[in-house]
Amino acid sequence: MDYLDYVQMTKGQRFAYKFTSFFKGIPGAIVKLFATIGYFIKKFFVSIGMFFRNYGMRFAKGDAGTKLSYIVMGAGNMMHKQFMKGLIFLATEVAYIYFMITFGSYYISRIYSGTVDAPIMLSSKKTKGFYRFGTGAIGSEVAVFKSTGFKEEIQNPDTYDNSNKILLFFVLTLLITIAFIAVYIANTKSAYKTQEIIASGKKPMNFKDEMLSFLDERFHITLLALPVLLLLTFTILPIIFTIFMAFTNYDEKHQPPSTLYQWVGFKNFADVFYSNPMKSETFGKILIWTLIWAVFATFTNFIFGIILALMINKKGIKFKGFWRTMFVVTAAVPQFVTLLIMKLMLDRNGPINGVITGMGMDAIPFLTEETWARVTVIVVNMWVGIPYTMLISSGILMNIPEDLYESARIDGANPVQQFTKITFPYIFFVLTPYLITTFVGNINNFNVIYFLTGGDPKAPEYYRAGKTDLLVTWLYRLTAETKDFNLAAVIGIMVFIICSLGSLIAFNMSKASKNEEEFS
Questions:
Q1: Sheet (strand 120-127) strand order
Q2: What is the pLDDT of residue 118?
Q3: Tell me, what's the pLDDT at 310?
């Protein structure tokens, strides 16, 4: 359809055209997304091929020092008189070998037996209130338990296999090994590069100048070193640990160290999707409610935030700063405080229901009946979320060129047309990335649900979840309340996939991605 056909449409036809175009564009966006993923996969394998080619080339063309550095790290640099650099590479190799011998190899060897074999009782003989158990995975080592009548307390946990400890240190060993491989490759590149510099008749950089370069042309490495280390430690390591956990039976019946959990493959994923009716039905219904909640929570805040910003910024409105401040106060108060107060006010015996019953009407089950509870959390979320959109929209409204409105008025556009043709498209264009991140944030909006309803009302047909639970609050219940860590790990992975794919598709379909300079 060309532009002339489009402008001749009625408003209803334009809306229908845009609506159908949006859904028609989804398959294309998905195809584009997977094509992009395929491109990066292809590029990844090409990079691996180039890596091995260059690795072999350096060895083939390298001198004796370069070839020796493939076995003894730093040898090439030391033979080319870069002694400090060579010693650092050598110390790294020695430290890694020592780490693997004294620590890493133990947990690598236990990753199968340590997390699979459940403990077996070697002897049930009771001696002065104590029981002796063997681990099965370690063999002769035993743990001593003290009988307390209601539970068994570990008296010497250090002699007992612990699946969590094994899995965590295995992942840590993997990350350290990957880091070591990177340093090893840097060692071979450094040796070959130094060889080439000497062959060209130049003098290689000394250690002092190389260290000073980290404060100059390579200062970005210095700045990023600590953040990358913290990212690996507190983000990447837990993510990998969680992914591994999704393939185990780590639940309330398998709590290490008293009971080791086992590898179960894709059983947990099968349970969530089809093999366990209760779990799959719970996941499906909570997923649908989560998406409904995210849509309403995002667009109610967006639309009413824009309306509020327009009202405050309208010409002729006095005390604009005062009104903005009044609404910002709701954002300044900690969210959990606001939510807890709202919970008390909306309780069946709270002040709001007190007024309603005092008028001779029945109390409204704001938080205890499914439909009322879901509507309530959406409305309360508007109270805590609209001020943020109002502030952002106010900033955008102040920066829309006045020339656009002047031209529109000259052409005879009324205020409604100015809003639909200039104001709203401009705001929507600028706020598209914000909308996407807000939508993802609402999928993971833990506070509003947890502090208002706690996921209730109860749902006996659900697997350990309530009617207002989102995927993230269900995940919390599974970990904090029922210790279904394996199922929670699967839910966490699914939330990540949903959020990442949804964000990529939505952003690639938006004008903010396709036409960056449209409003510049």
A1: 120-127, 130-134, 142-147, 152-154
A2: 40
A3: 87
Q: How far apart are CA 176 and CA 155, in angstroms?
A: 32
Q: Please tell me what DSSP assigns to residue 138.
A: S
Residues listed for the chain: 520
pLDDT band at 3 (very low <50, low <70, confident <90, very high): low
State how far the Cα of 190 lies from the Cα of 183, in Å rounded to an integer. Answer: 10
Average pLDDT over residues 336-350: 90
**Distances from the Cα of 151 to the Cα of 147, 148, 256, 258, 446, angstroms:** 7, 6, 14, 11, 33
DSSP labels, 252-295: TT--TTTS---B-TTHHHHIIIIISHHHHHHHHHHHHHHHHHHH
112 touches 137 (CB < 8 A): no
- Give the model confidence (pLDDT) of 364-373 as tens digits: 999 999 999 9
**Contact in structure between 17 and 1 (CB atoms under 8 Å):** yes
Distance CA(77)–CA(63), nearest Å, equals 12
Mean pLDDT across the chain: 83
Global confidence as pTM:
0.78
Q: Which long-range contacts (CB under 8 A, 24 or more apart) does 23-26 make?
A: 25/509, 26/505, 26/509
Residues pairing with 248 in the sheet: 263
The CA-CA-CA angle for residues 59, 61, 64, to 5°, reads: 70
Closest-CA residue to 488 (of 241, 295, 293, 172): 241
Rounded distance between C-alpha atoms, residue 214 and residue 121, angstroms: 58
Asked whether 108 and 170 are in contact (CB, 8 A), the reply is yes
Reference 118, options 288, 302, 250; nearest CA is 250
Which residue from 357, 377, 381 is spatially nearest to 468, judged by alpha carbons?
377
> Could you tell me if 258 and 252 are in contact, meaning their C-beta atoms sit under 8 angstroms apart?
no
Q: Which residues pair with 132 in a beta bridge?
A: 123, 144
Cα–Cα distance for residue pair 339/238, rounded to 1 Å: 30
The pLDDT value recorded for residue 413 is 85
Q: What is the secondary structure of 1-70 as a DSSP string? A: --HHHHHTS-HHHHHHHHHHHHHHHHHHHHHHHHHHHHHHHHHHHHHHHHHHHHHHHHHHH--HHHHHHT
Q: How far is CA 480 from CA 44, 474, 488, in A?
A: 39, 10, 10
Provide the 8-state DSSP code for 463: S
Sign of CA dihedral 58, 60, 65, 71: positive
Tell me, what's the pLDDT at 502?
81
Distance between CA atoms of residues 491 and 283, nearest Å: 8
